[in-house]
Amino acid sequence: MPPYQKKLDRRDFLKVSLIAASSPALFSACESKEIRGLSRANPGVTPAQLKIVEFYSQAFILGPPPSKELLAFVVHLYTPEEAEVVQHLPLIYGRTARAISPKIKRPENEVETILSRIADEKRAILAFGEPGKPRKYGLMPLVPGTMELVMMEGKNDDWHRRYGQLFEAVYETGYIKDVLKKRLPATRYIPVQETINAIPTALSTDRLTQMMEENKSFGLGTCQCRQAKAFSGHDCGLPRDTCLATGSLADFLISRNIMRRVDRSEALESKLKANAAGLATMSMNVEFREPNISCSCCGCCCVILRTISQFNTPGLIAPPHFIPKRDESKCLKCGLCQSKCPMGSHFLSEKGWAFRRERCIGCGVCASVCPARALAMEPVEHYHRPPANYFGLGLKMTPGYLYYLLS
Question: Could you give the residue range(s) of every CATH 3.30.70.20 domain in the chain?
């Protein structure tokens, strides 16, 4: 068995699934007021589809509350036949067709065919398995998870276009404002490297090239956020072939034909081109030696940046290590900082230049495009470097997570 499969099967996902299995709220009967209301208003929807709505809406996985938008998304994602099977899947590390077969009184081979289709064609559920053994299947949260995996392959057909539109409708309900009342620093933004090269306090984790040096495996896929927004009528025209995975995560996504394998030089080139186009480079908020995902984000499409640009919430973004400082004597008042900043942090008017510090993610795009070098990135005091691993990240996110659950 390839080593990356063992890591993902046993170490990363099994721990999460054991925690999920201990939560009595998951996959409870469809008895909530909201679910009953959806059932009465939509008599053609099956109980299994309603049960999946309830799964995606669990606070445990930071889901949106039950709504007509979420129901429409689920009905599109799973046919009644598929939902009948999927309703019996646990979170992440899962269940075999043999285990589900007696629950729905259908032959094991039929259940396996349905699960394989959902996992390998729709990409809506996870599938794991060692050679010669039955595969196990599991559900994912809506975000991050289901939304990204379905869109990452970059397919452009009627089904995927409708999927993107329905996800956008769920996101536009603004449920994220309730989830992010406190900061959940799951991600961080890496400054454009040329803007921090001369800064002595810059860390290895501040440098995009270090991400490449720490890893040997790289996978490249489609930006799910810009794809979904384009399907919903907003195409910002920025590059989409920018979603990068590293390490064992890249190996896993490549093995599922969700990403294509690239070498170190192509991986770096894709990120440098994204920076040049005005996109901000994101990674998970851990050291680069851990399996990682790196998006290149715009403020108009990215579901992470829109938590700030659209919903003005603390967001999923860790505080930046660097912020821009302006030298007024050099400033040409050309407006490039305003037009290129993905977060709208810079504002130029007849009264002069203004900087909205609370919106800045420290990406350095503004400093990199300034023709007069009037903007320079400077370190922030009391910066905390990223956690060493995902366990440490979980601990860092715990206060905000518990606040959401308890409130």
Answer: 187-406
| Spatial separation of the C-alpha atoms in residues 70 and 385, rounded to whole Å | 37
For 61-80, the pLDDT digits (tens) are: 889 999 999 999 999 999 99
141 upstream amide cis, omega within 30 of 0: no
Who contacts 353 (Cβ-Cβ below 8 Å, separation ≥6)?
326, 328, 331, 333, 346, 347
Give every CB contact of residue 356 below 8 A, 6+ residues apart in sequence.
Answer: 344, 345, 346, 347
The domain 187-406: what is its CATH number?
Answer: 3.30.70.20
**Who contacts 73 (Cβ-Cβ below 8 Å, separation ≥6)?**
163, 166, 167, 169, 170
In the block, residue with structure tokens 């995009």:
208
- What is the side-by-side strand order in the sheet with 296-297? 187-190, 280-284, 296-297
- In Å, how far are 217, 247, 290, 291, 352 from 294, measured between CA atoms? 13, 12, 12, 10, 35
The model carries a pTM of: 0.86
pLDDT band at 203 (very low <50, low <70, confident <90, very high): confident
Structure tokens at 334: 């050309």
Q: Who wins on pLDDT, 382 or 350?
A: 382
- How far apart (Å, rounded) are the C-alpha atoms in residues 236 and 227? 10
